[in-house]
Structure formats: structure tokens, C-alpha cells
Amino acid sequence: MSIEAAINAIQSAYGDQITTNTAILDTHGQNEAYFPVTPPDAVVFPNSTAEVSEIVKICAANDCPIIAYGTGTSLEGHQLAIRGGISLDMSKMNAVLNIHSEDMDAVVQPGVTREQLNEDLRATGLFFPVDPGANASLGGMTATRASGTTAVRYGTMRENVLALEVVMADGRIIRTGTRARKSSAGYDLTKLFVGSEGTLGIITEITLRLQGQPEAASAATCSFPDIESAVNTVITTIQMGIPVARIEFVDEMMARGFNLSQGADLPEVPHLFVEFHGSINGVKEQAETFGEIVTDMGGSDFKWSSKPEDRTALWKMRHNAYYAQKAHRPEMRVQNTDVCVPISRLAEAVTFARKEAERLGLIVTMVGHTGDGNFHCGISVNHEDKAEMAATSEFVHNLNTLALKLDGTVTGEHGVGIGKMKYMAEEHGDALQIMVDIKKTLDPKNIMNPGKMLPSN
Question: Regarding beta strands 86-89 and 42-44, do their DSSP bridges make them parallel or antiparallel, or are they unpaired?
Fold first, then answer.
């Protein structure tokens, strides 16, 4: 039993759906993080759940690792074949299978991207709200329990996945959940697989909750003299129950990056980008109340974007944050990390990150889904400079340690992968052993994305 035997068996069964082309292998061994290229031994492109099942059975019989691959936008090395094996590229399983407009749900294959789904939904008056910065696959978003700018209003993937079809480590095909909006029948296996990062099974079908397009929407930007006043504005807004659809924090370094990379004209101070959804009168009332909070907190430079094209431009700029991060040192790579803390501790965490960056001499941009306490740090780093790499590692470690101290988590949406694995014991304590036991029960041969998420994996 070996990886080579598995590849030969898959080639016999599926012919040109498997490749060992070096360029394709290297592409599937790349990552958006700081880990070295780690290619698989082969890449397979299944067309159906039945094919995934048969491929998994072959791999199980030969103790061959399997790594599910979406669009490759992971920030913590989830898709790297650190023990070799097969990369299962789900891009050909990219059909929107059903849209149930009356029930406000859709059934999709894992290779469908969020933009593709929303394009298909355009004529229905519905949309799928979860929007990470990248146009990620819905399979990858489910596997990492992703979220985005709208999570404060519409929730993360955890709240928006109703049911799954999953191929288990022995090739069995199971379904978790139904299209019903609630159930008290048995363990919630859907939630178990959402965020499992491909370590328990391969997701082959996803049933998603949809939302109605709002009657009205309005967005705005406003600036603040310091981080604390911006973050305290967020906290007050949430505590007052104002139903913001988006409320994003941008620090002064990110504002400068937007100016450099996208020709924006933002004052280079902390900002909030906000959006309101609802009825025309409701949006107006929400915006007025928010404006009063901003004024009370010392904010200024209020700029409204009521036209659809202006809102689109604003959020396109926000989603292009990576290019703003790169603009400070275009020749260098950007290492991204995220943490999430209770919003009452958010100002403390963000201020700590800024002071740590200054202490370590690092160029760090910060942007965050601050409505739920989640923020990201983009560190511009020369990977050839050992001192810079050491300072970057220290920054990330100290930020993670603080997040746990503040009763938060080391990752709000990027996932664990390789990069955050060493913090799992500190975050979960004795509960980590339960996760290990689940992994051993569902994947006794440890072929499903081995070496990720769990320290003992």
C-alpha cells in the first residue's frame, strides 16, 4: 500500500482526470501564507460525488493522504500536502443544483464560488451574504467556517449552512441536516463538518440559507482621531441595537494603503466603513442615529454612498485590502493573521497590535469586521530577512496570546490549518482531546488532510 499505488489505481479508473504535471502540482502546493511550496504527488479533478467516493476508497485502501482543494485562497496553509498524497481539486463540481426561492435556500456543489452563486441569484431578489475578501469556493468557505464584512448582520458560514453531503474517510456518502430551518433530532453533524478543514471528510454538496435583497441600502465612511474612538463607536453602535449590515474598521496604515494602491483620498487616520440595509425609512433612521454616535465619539469626514455604484466602489476598495497592504512595500510579501475577541476588549486588542508593530519595527496594516470583534493584521515582511521573520513571528505569537488572555480566539475566520495549530491546546484545554477522539473515530487511518488543525494529527 502506497501513494504510488493509489495514483496508479486512480489513473486506471479515471484516466485524464488525474495529473502529475509539475506546474499543476506546484500550483496546488502554493499558499497565500508564508509556508513553503508543498505540492501533492498528484491532482485529481472529480466530476461527481460518486467519483469522490470511489477516489476516497482507493486512497483509504492505500493509506494515501487526501487534501480537498477549492480556489487556493487559504491563509493558514490548509491545502498544503505536507505528507504528500492526492489533491482533490473540486473546481469541476461547480453547479448550482437548486434554488428554492420560496424557501430562501440554495443547493450547490463545493466548487461554486460566492460570486457565481450571487450572479445566479440576481433575478430572484435573493442573495448569499457571506463575503470573505477573496472570491473563495463555497466548499472552502464551509470547510474553514468563513465569514466576512456582513457577518455582524447575517452571520458566518456556521449560521448559513443548513445541510451537507459529505464523503467520509472510508468512502461512505452521508447527508447531514435537511432544508428545514430547525431540528431537534440528534447530534448536529452539519456544525461538526462546518469548520473541519477537510480533516473529517470531503464536502460534496452544501445547502445554504439565502437572504432577501433589502429595499434600501446606504453606506458611509467616517474618520476618527484615534483607534480607541473608532472602536468605541462600533461598540456603542452594537450595544444600542442598531442593525448595521456592515461595520468595518480601517486603521491609518490601511487608509494610506488605499490611497497609494487605489487612488483613494482618505485622511490617513482610523476609519469606519459602514452599511445599512432595510426599508427606506429604516435605513434613514439607522444612519441618523449612527451619525450622532460618530459625532459624540469625535468622528468626522462623514461621506455617504447612497448610489449602488458608489457602494460597490467602496466595498470593492475594502475587499482589495491586500493590494493596500502591498502598497507600503510592493516588493515584499504580506503575511496575514486574524484574531477575534469580545467587542468590549476590542480597543485593547487593536491598540496592543499597533504598539507591538511599532516596538518590533514592523509595517502592519489593520482592518477588521469589528462588529463581531474580529480583526486582521497584514504584516509586510521580507521572507529572506531572518530578523524580520523573527519579529513577524513574535508579533503573531504575542497577538494570539493576548486574544486568548482576553477570552477570545486565535482565529475568527481564517481557520487553524498549520499556522494556528500550536494554540489549539491553550484555547480548548481538555476539549481538544474530544476533537482528537472524533478525528480518530471518523478517520482512523488519518488520510483526511493530515497534519492540520489538531496538534496530534
Answer: parallel
